[in-house]
């Protein structure tokens, strides 16, 4: 009888071990899903952004807040999903979108022909301009004096693209808008090129820096969605339209930019 019991005990042990391993595997998969490492639950929508672009997206303590974040929250409500935010380098946002790591990119991103090859773009939700920032006492007064200068830009932005087309310019690329201005303030570059809203927001912390009048270009910000995801694109466009019609958009503009900016944004877009 003892010799017959051993195989039975062995089978029970093997079955138990397999069940235990299956349970551990399921728990690990569940954790990875929740952390966004593999797959995602259907009730979560992930926003990719670069949280160094005040007032659009920036950190308030450990929380990422801003104009773009508030728009993302409205999109999450519309789609009946919970918003999750992934903070990453600006030049890594579209690759993250294409790989499925994020569902949408809301990061003060301008629509360009090159970007349209790699993503769908929503209707415009903000009109922006590229501005030049200098240090007090600089000889640079306008865009015609940028030739041969050392120019600080945020990597992967339209300011970066503009600077690369200036004859003889030496381009210094940085991960965030504040790091560009820190370098300018330290004398590491002659001039910085940044989007108008972050330029004005961040220069308040640098008494020696000045935003020059006039713009290098005018452009529209839009939300990027993965190619082929037309359903989400339609939902996002609907949110943008509804926000501009029912006053939520105007409230956000007042909250982050003040009354003077409202007339510049064209609520009919």
Walk me through this protein's architecture.
This protein is an alpha/beta fold and 269 residues long. 40% of the residues lie in helices and 22% in strands. It has helices at 2-35, 67-78, 93-99, 113-116, 158-164, 177-185, 196-203, 230-246, 248-257, and strands at residues 44-49, 52-53, 57-60, 63-65, 82-87, 104-105, 120-121, 126-135, 150-154, 170-174, 191-195, 209-211, 217-221, 224-225. The strands form 3 sheets. Strands 8, 9, 10, 11, 12 and 13 form a 6-stranded mixed β-sheet that branches. Helix 2 crosses helix 8.
Question: Low-confidence parts lasting 5 or more residues at pLDDT below 50?
Answer: 33-39, 260-264
Q: Largest sheet, described in full?
A: 6 strands, mixed
How helical, in percent, are the residues? 40-55%
Q: So what's the overall shape?
A: globular
What structural class is derived from the secondary structure elements?
alpha/beta
Q: What is the straight-line distance between the termini?
A: 85 Å
Strand percentage? 15-25%
The ordered H/E elements are HEEEEHEHEHEEEHEHEHEEEHH
Counted by DSSP, the helix tally is 9
Mean of all residue-level pLDDT scores: 87
